[in-house]
Specification:
- By secondary structure, the chain is an alpha/beta fold.
- Helix 5 (79-84) links the parallel strand 2 and strand 3 (91-92).
- The protein has a single domain (6-203), classed as Rossmann fold, CATH 3.40.50.10230.
- Helix 1 (6-23) packs across helix 2, helix 4 (60-69) crosses helix 10 (187-203) and helix 6 (98-106) packs across helix 7 (111-121).
- It has a six-stranded mixed β-sheet, sandwiched between helices.
- The radius of gyration is 17 Å and the shape is globular.
- It is built from ten helices and six strands; from the N terminus they run αααβαβαβααβαβαβα.
- The longest helix is centred in the first third of the chain and has 18 residues, at 6-23.
Length: 207
């Protein structure tokens, strides 16, 4: 998972072996692709609890990997998430866009939510990855009920205010999703899940 030297690869392989042993009972019954995603999240966070709290909708993996094979756009909530994703397609992040900053101030909303609204106004279509801002996830849910074209959502905002609620709301929609229940989540989870899916897409067909 990113190791480039022989020593680094040995460490990564040992780490993956430890992760698989820690969570093998928890991922039993999942597809190989779903297991790979969760293994990567646990590996990246060093937290086996993610094997319990990561929930993936039935059509999420196939829908997302198809979009990734076609190099459809990815929209993220913050720059840190964008920086961590290795992708040949376009990754869009508007949180620092001058129009978004103005919109957030004028309309009294968070910049994260304004960034999603701006993306929709630019006819965004693709995968959405939310690692930090519950308000961004809520805005995605709101706008997909109008005309925003979202293929799937990795919704893993972190925090004690609104995070759990926004993720629970996502599960009640028809949007293919990956979430973490409760307050846990964040950039490492969002990035590792996305990179795992990119790797799966590169390997070929979903079994």
């Amino acid at each position: 998972m990113g190791a480039s030297t022989r020593k680094g690869r040995k460490i990564a392989e040992k780490s993956r072996e430890i992760v698989k042993n820690l969570i093998k009972d928890k991922i039993e019954g999942l597809s190989p692709e779903e297991a790979e995603i969760i293994e990567r999240i646990v590996h990246s966070t060093a937290d086996p609890e993610y094997a319990d709290i990561t929930k993936i909708s039935q059509n999420f993996t196939a829908t997302t990997t198809e979009a990734l094979k076609n190099l459809e756009d990815i929209l993220v909530d913050v720059e840190m998430v964008k920086a961590g994703i290795s992708y040949d397609g376009n990754i869009k992040c508007y949180i620092n866009h001058p129009k978004v900053i103005k919109m957030a101030k004028d309309e009294n909303m968070t910049r994260a939510a304004a960034a999603i609204e701006y993306a929709a106004s630019q006819n965004f279509s693709g995968i959405v990855v939310i690692g930090n801002a519950p308000t961004a996830l809520l805005k995605v849910i709101e706008l997909t009920q109008k005309n925003m074209k979202v293929r799937s959502v990795i919704g893993v905002p972190v925090g004690f205010v609104g995070a759990a609620e926004s993720k629970k709301l996502l599960t009640k929609t028809n949007i293919p999703y990956l979430i973490t229940t409760g307050p846990k989540g964040g950039t490492p989870v969002a990035v590792s899940a996305t990179n795992a899916l990119i790797n799966i897409a590169k390997k070929g067909e979903i079994k």
